[in-house]
Structure formats: structure tokens, C-alpha cells
Amino acid sequence: MIMNKKHTILGAFLLLGLVACDPMNDIYNEIDESQGPVVKSGEYTLVAADYTSISKLVLAEENITAEKKAAANAVKSTNTLNELVKAEDYIPALLAKSYADWGKKSTVKVTYAYQDALPETVLEMSKTETYELKDDAYAFVWGDETVVNFLTPKKSPVEYLPKVLTNVKTNAKKGDLVLVDYKYDTEEPTIEVGDDLYQQEFESLDVHDSKATGTINGNVEGWQVINASGTKNWVGKFYNDNRYVQCSAFGATGDNVSWLVGPKTNIVDGASLTFDAKIGYHVGDALHVMVSTTYDGTANLKDEDWEDITSAFKFQNAGNNYTEWYSPGMADLSKYAGKGLYIAFKYVGSATITSTYQLDNVSISTTRMAPTHEKPFNAMYQFDGVDWKPFNKKDVLILTPEDYAAMGITDFGSSKLPENYLPAYLAKMLPYAQIGDVKTLVYKNYDSGSKTVVAEAAEYKLGSDKVWAKNTAVVDITSQFVNVGNGKWIYDPSIYYVISKGDGNLQRIVDYVKETNSTYVDSYGTAEYYYGASEYQGNFNFKVSDRVDRYGKDPELAKITDVEEQAAFMFKRAAEGLCIMLKGMYPDAKSDIDGITLDYYVTFSVYLNPAESGTRNNYTMQFNYDGSNFIHVGDVVKVE
Hints:
This protein has 640 residues and is of the alpha+beta class. Helix content is 20%, strand content 32%. The chain is built from 13 helices and 37 strands. The chain starts with a strand and ends with a strand.
């Protein structure tokens, strides 16, 4: 018997809406829950909370790749599953929790949104990392020059951004993408020369040998070393005809605090503090720059007298080595104008924090950096396996800080959805775009979960209504899940296969007939007329005259004159042939998975079915495996 039933083919899979009818279901449903789990069936559609739960499950996995992490984040942000986060892998965990009282062989049909076939460019861009140049990066760029937190024509982004990325992205892989945020000024930083209020170069230190140390107290006018704890103190040093001061806790057995306090200096408006520094064998930050207007000038140190201004300076370190001499910046002292001010360098080390700090050329003056006019910018870079190169790809637009500013935001987020802004942005940026034009956008989105800004990508297309719309590529899919006992759910294990021309599997039937009765095989060796399989045409040939009058002259079919009976006979033969084909396709076939019968569904095309109108019609047959052979079960289902 042939049944008509409409199905949808998605890719190479046939999603069949077959429901097993169990006459006992009504009885089971009446059983008191206290008697234990019962067999039930139901339907469910995923909601936003489910997608969030699935995303968390994926992100909790060990050794998750950057690609899968991005896919997991996309599940939460778009409420869709995708190629890397599949229904069959994660929905069972949800069902185990929500349907804990359902027994073995219970089924649930789950409908979910699936992100289908996103463009390759969007997938590539979605892997983009974000990186912002901060203090350490700018210190790396400027080296021993006065450090400013922006790039300039002299320290150009084109030259220095690749160097910064090479320095910080030590494990980069070919193809990695990074969206870099930085600040840039079209003018170089300049110094406005003013009056010197105090200068100290430590050349009065009584030390003349690089291996020796000099005493600061009594040798540098107005300066005193005050030990608060430990045995390591500030000392004078000499190297390369230069004298300077140094402190290190190397060799300390406990906490070590040493103060180097300078003389009182009268501060005027516009005054600032600068000094040169050199740091060696950095093992923790140990230097604090302190100022006081109430210190009494004695060894009587009180914490409440001192203010920490260390944050005004940007210190570099070279790890297991020494930096060059450099200026870590300047601290504005204008707030102390009209007062006498002490400055101090407080070293706080220990047995584990032993970094060496060398200081020189301490200056308080009204010389200062001229006002700057840096602005935020960004740029995309890609690693080619050797170097970081500017990323340029046709039809990819990267939103800039200027773009966000025009929208009145700094990035997107849950309260500032990209799709509410980007269509207008594209209309403004591309006023002459034509219907059907496509652009991929890369933008920053605030992830409230991780509390970080991440890079995201989306494709937009200009529709016939001349409005840019996001290509979601989202389809709704319904899949069945089965309870296999002990609270475990699995994706319906059924196998669906659609025969297509040239895939080679009908040839398995032809070759079998060639070995058993070659009179049924045509001269090309690509079709046989016993089961009716044709690899060349990719179908089964039900043309009665071909099978009775030409190849093999099938005697059994020749006896049948009724068209319905002819069709039934040839479907029976086709089923036998498909059993042969399936055995060749699945040499390790299973009859069940976790006690659930494994069904094999095959969809195929028939040429000239005598009982049907039309030249070609499609049908589906169901098969099971009995441990030795495949057997046809159920009816033949016509696919319309």
C-alpha cells in the first residue's frame, strides 16, 4: 500500500513527522504517578532561558576552543542553536531535568531555532578578539622616551600596532583576527619649558665603583633614608659614569620597607614631578611615589601624613632583565601650590617581592607637556603565521569609535541592540547601495554575563523595500528525543538517507545483480532491471516494458496485468534491492541504540510508476536491521 504524506527535505536529511501509535498510552497516562515513571509523549518549544542554559553547558566544557566559545555565546545572544552547538548534544540534558518523571521509551518532539548556513565571512569575523592599548602597551611603544598614552605620526599605528600585537599575542595562530582600540594624536607630544623648582641628579654621592654602594644620608643634601622594616635600604650606586639611587629586597627574609625622602620644596601653580627610572628583575611592583605637606622632616613617619601618587606614573618592566633608563611620566603638583611639599620614594618589598628600582634626575619644575588632542580609533589585524597585517576584505565594514559616537553610544548591548542601529548606519554610509547588496559588519557588543566587550559580526542585505535587514539564516526544526531509561534522553537515532544521482549507492545493487544474474544488467553496467536500480539515472525504473520485454524479461512481472499489482510487485523488488544497498552502506549496522530500535529511512525516485501519474515520483521506505540483514517494515510513503 502506498501512503501519501508530505515531508520537508533539509540538506541531505529528511525530517519525517512519523508518530508511533501506542494503544496503551491512554492507559499509561491514567496510572498513578506514585507507581513510577510511565511512557508518555509530548511536544516542547525551546524558550530564551533554555538557550541560555545550553550556552552555559557549552562554556563549562573543558578545553573549549575559541570557535566553540564564540558559537556558545551566539546561542545565548541569538536564541538559536548552530553547527557547533547541536540539538542532539545538549537538548537531552534539558529534557532529563524537565521530564525527570517520564519513563523509558517516552518521546518528546522539541522545536528549536537553528542558525543555518551563516556566510563564511560572518563565521570568520565572529572569531575576532578585542584588544585595547593601555599603559604597558604605550610604554612598550615609547620605550625610554616620555611615555604618553596615544600614538602619533612618529609612533604610527601602521608601524607599531603589529609590534604591540606580536609582543602581547605570543600564541597567535595563522588566521587569528584582533580588533585593536587605540588613541591617536596628529601632533607629537611637546614639552613647554618652565622654571626649575628643584633638581637632583645624585652626583654628590660618594661612590666610584660599580660594585660598591654609597651612603645617601649626609651625602645628598636634604635627602634621608628611613628604614621602616627589614634590612634592605636605599643606597647610592655608580655605573657608566653615572650616579643614582637604588633599592632592592633581594636576599630579604621578610617584609622590607625603606623610605627615600627628599627636601621640602615650595610648589607653584603648574609644577610637576618627573624622574628617570630603571627597573631590573621585576618580581612584583614595589615602588610607591609619596608626597606630604604635613611631614615634620624627621624620621617620624606617619601614614596619615602621606598621599600616594604612584598612579600618575607608568612603569615598565623587562622581566628577568633590566629596562633602559626611561621617564615614567609626570605628576601634576598644582593642587599643592603655595605649600611646602616633601616627596618620597617608598620601597615595599619582601622575601618574594624583590624587584630592583634605580632612580635618577628627580625634578620639580613648571616644565610640562603641552595639551594633547588624542582621539580614539580602531583597526583590524590578522596574523598570517609570521606577522600581523592590516585586515582588509571587500564588503566588510568595521564600526569605528566615531561611528558609535554618532549613534550616541560607545558599544552595543542588551539595551542597545545592534539591529536597532545598524540599518540606519548602513543607509547613511551607503546612500547609493543597490537592492541585493550585502555587507558584513563587525562591531563591539557588551556581554553582561562576562562583563566584557566582545567583537561580533552580522550580515545585512538591502531588500526590495530599500531597507537593510539582518540575515539571520534561522530555521525552525522539530526533532524527536527518546528516553532510553534511567533518566537518559537521546536524539532520535533514526538514519535518513536520500538517494541522489551519482552518489554510487544504487551501483551496489547493480553490481550485486551483475554477479548473480547479469542478463538483467544493461550494456553500460550502470542499471539493472530485476530490482530496477539505475545508478546512471539515480532512480528505480518502473517502466514495465523495459523490465518485461528488454533486459532479463522478468517472467514474474510478465504475469501481472493490473497496474496497481505491477507497482506493488516492483516496490517489493525495490525494497529487496534497498536491503542489499543498505548492507553495503552500513557494514557495522546496529539494530538498536540503548534499547531503542534504530530505523533507517530511504527516500528514492521512481521513473514511470504504472499506478501513478507523472514521469517521476519520490517515495520513502522504512527499514530495520535484525542483526544479520536489513528488512523492510511499514508502508511505502509517497513524498509530495
